């Protein structure tokens, strides 16, 4: 079984970040400091670090075409089980989260078919959550 990953990311407002990750995404809060917060994101440790200025990091508009959608080139997230993904999509909708890319099935009927969705956190960090009907397709090439 893979070990949890750790990722640290810049934020502009720790209070808004905590509300979003804790109340909207459902993350448990771990260690905290006046300039950072650890979250448990589906078993992975993600750390929000307060930054005073991060030019070129947050709110980037760079995209690449994946399938038929313009995907933010800088993004991260978790591959969930399909029922977890569906529950998260519903949770996000119920909280009024605006999607960059609405939840949908990408590569339908092809190798790598996946459910995916993109949205921003309060500091404009792009997040992608996806799920595969068959986990063997996660790294499949043909």
Automatic annotation (TrEMBL):
Transmembrane segments: none annotated. Gene3D superfamilies: 2,3-Dihydroxybiphenyl 1,2-Dioxygenase, domain 1 (3.10.180.10). It comes from the Bacteria. Signal peptide: none annotated. Residues 3-132 form the VOC domain. PANTHER family: PTHR39434, VOC DOMAIN-CONTAINING PROTEIN. This is VOC family protein. It comes from Thermoleptolyngbya sichuanensis A183.
């Amino acid at each position: 079984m893979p070990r949890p990953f750790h990722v640290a990311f810049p934020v502009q407002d720790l209070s808004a970040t905590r509300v979003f990750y804790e109340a909207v995404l459902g993350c448990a809060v771990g260690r905290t400091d006046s300039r950072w917060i650890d979250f448990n994101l589906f078993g992975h440790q993600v750390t929000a670090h307060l930054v005073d200025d991060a030019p070129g990091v947050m709110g980037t508009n760079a995209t690449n075409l994946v399938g038929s959608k313009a995907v933010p080139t800088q993004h991260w997230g978790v591959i969930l089980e399909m029922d977890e993904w569906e529950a998260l999509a519903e949770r996000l909708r119920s909280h009024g989260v605006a999607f960059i890319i609405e939840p949908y099935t990408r590569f339908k009927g092809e190798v790598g078919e996946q459910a995916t969705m993109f949205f921003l956190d309060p500091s404009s960090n792009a997040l992608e959550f996806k799920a595969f009907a068959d986990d063997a397709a996660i790294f499949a090439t043909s």
